[in-house]
Design brief:
Blueprint lengths: L1 E6 L5 E5 L4 H10 L3 E3 L1 E5 L5 H12 L3 E5 L2 E5 L7 E2 L1 H6 L6 H9 L1 E5 L12 H9 L3 E5 L2 E5 L9 E3 L5 H12 L4 E5 L5 H12 L3 E3 L5 E5 L4 E2 L2 E3 L4 H13 L3 E5 L7 H9 L3 E4 L3 E5 L8 E3 L11 H9 L3 E6 L9 H7 L4 E4 L2 E6 L7 E3 L3 H11 L5 E5 L2 H6 L3 H7 L3 E6 H18 L1
Parallel strand pairs: 2-17, 3-15, 4-16, 7-8, 11-12, 20-21, 24-25
Antiparallel strand pairs: 1-25, 1-26, 4-6, 5-6, 8-10, 9-10, 12-14, 13-14, 17-19, 18-19, 21-23, 22-23
Helix pairs in contact: 1-2, 1-7, 4-6, 5-6, 6-7, 8-10, 8-12, 10-12
The structure holds uridine-diphosphate-N-acetylglucosamine and phosphoenolpyruvate.
């Protein structure tokens, strides 16, 4: 088992570069399956475990996939299989995003039911509602969802989402690109990753309009082609480094950060006393000597992102006064609260809200990551806690962050990633040194 070990107290400074967005690259790779002709070349792809997983899913489906130098190449021109098994979907829920592409391309798709995860039950009823409206017959049984289009092709439809689900918007958008006729999708998600996917689909020959607004219109075409695309920078990774700078009272240039993708986050952090300077290469973040408490409510974009909720909790624990965070997107995204308590955080859960009295007298402890953003948040807390923090369950971190500890170390954090054997060895060495000095 690996651990990240952080010794708190260092102020961060310097420059850190943001990777391509995990939540943009996964749907884009799923969309490459729509091309029955030509190769897709996707650039600025982060080396995350989720990317390796989606690549494996595509290979299983009979696409030819390469991944080198932050570039994924996909040739999906061969006949594709229709089934994505549970071993992949269990590893990563976003595997369900191949369903729209497969259904559009093959007229049939069979994908293992994702089930719940640490942040909530996460049903996919809105995805299925969209496929059904486009004429598909959807059956759920034996742990699989099976969808079949009449005579092998979906038709356009008018679809209203009950909630602006990111995954449902993406899956239905992909399915509609090859449907007969026009699809009008209403109350859709407006996240920057939706716009990135629409841009890629249009490069493939699709006709998608309105991405980034509440209504998306997709005129179906007969065939799509491989295309080249650069993935947008990861606004959540960028936000995580903004918090790292702020929590340590540091001065960090977050290179590649797009301020328009982080409006709600920057506004809240400014309210807390953090200074932001837009520079040519990115955003400079300067932390104050004392952070002010604020209230936050997570919402679909352009509201405050749920994927920054736990990192902001880390920041608010360090702020002076009473703060309240209300989580409205996922019903169970507070698993990290207990771990923060192990670090002496003054925090309590009341329904869908968390109340913090700050600043907490944060102390280093051994804590376990409960999901990928919680992993980052616990490490951020370790940067200002008294003593040593050890964070375990790093498989979560590796889903969403490339070289997180190395990037923080390059900014001046006292942080390392070790295996249990290495930690035991260094403890033994410490004991010998202490004994020799005695
Ligand atoms: C790979 C990826 O891009 N993941 C992001 C995506 O997840 P994901 O696409 O799964 O998130 P959704 O926007 O679909 O889910 C938001 C809420 O809607 C509910 N829901 C969703 C679909 C559905 O058919 N029925 C339903 O009830 C979910 O349970 C959840 O409570 O958006 C989330 C919300 O910004 C982010 O936290 C995730 O990081
Ligand atoms: C919840 C997240 O991702 P996923 O939807 O892939 O679990 C996330 O990126 O914070």
């Amino acid at each position: 088992m690996e651990k990240i070990i952080v010794r708190g107290g260092n102020r961060l400074s310097g420059t850190v570069k943001v990777e391509g967005a995990k939540n943009a690259v996964l749907p884009v790779i799923a969309a490459t399956l729509l091309a029955s002709d030509g190769k897709s070349v996707i650039r600025d792809v982060p080396t995350l475990s989720d990317v390796y997983t989606i690549n494996e899913v595509l290979r299983f489906l009979n696409a030819e996939v390469g991944f080198d130098n932050n570039t994924v190449t996909v040739d999906a021109s061969r006949e594709l299989k229709v089934e994505a098994p549970f071993e992949y979907v269990r590893k990563m829920r976003a595997s369900v995003l191949v369903m729209g592409s497969l259904l559009a391309r093959n007229g049939r798709a069979r994908v293992a039911l994702p089930g719940g995860c640490a942040i909530g039950s996460r049903p996919i009823d809105q995805h299925l509602k969209g496929f059904e409206a486009m004429g598909a017959t959807v059956k759920v049984g034996n742990g699989f969802i099976e969808a079949e289009a009449p005579e092998g092709r979906l038709h356009g439809a008018k679809i209203y989402l009950d909630f602006p689900s990111v995954g449902a918007t993406e899956n239905i958008m992909m399915a509609a690109t090859l449907a007969k006729g026009t699809t009008i999708l209403e109350n859709v998600a407006k996240e920057p990753e939706i716009v990135d996917l629409a841009n890629f689909l249009n490069k493939m020959g699709a006709k998608v309009r309105g991405a980034g607004t509440g209504t998306i219109r997709i005129e179906g075409v007969d065939v799509l082609f491989g295309a080249e695309h650069h993935i947008i920078p990861d606004r959540i990774e960028a936000g995580t480094f903004m918090v790292a700078a702020a929590i340590t009272g540091g001065d960090v240039l977050v290179k590649g950060a797009v301020p328009e993708h982080a409006t709600s986050l920057i506004a809240k952090m400014e309210e807390m006393g953090v200074q932001f300077i837009e520079e040519e290469e990115g955003v400079r973040v300067i932390g104050p000597s004392e952070l002010k408490a604020v209230d936050i409510k997570t919402m679909p974009h352009p509201g405050f992102p749920t994927d920054m909720q736990s990192q902001m909790m880390a920041l608010l624990l360090h702020a002076k006064g009473t703060s309240v965070i209300t989580e409205t997107v996922f019903e169970n995204r507070f698993m990290h609260v207990e771990e923060f308590r192990r670090m002496n955080a003054d925090v309590k859960i009341e329904g869908r809200s968390v109340i913090m009295e700050g600043p907490s007298n944060l102390q280093g402890a051994e804590v376990a990551a409960t999901d990928l953003r919680a992993a980052a948040a616990l490490i951020l807390t370790g940067l200002v806690a008294d003593g040593i923090t050890r964070v375990t369950e790093l498989k979560h971190l590796d889903r969403g962050y490339v070289d997180f500890h190395k990037k923080l170390a390059s900014l001046g954090a006292d942080i390392e990633r070790v295996t249990e054997a290495e930690e035991d060895m260094s403890t033994t060495e410490q004991t010998i040194i202490t004994d020799l000095n005695a």
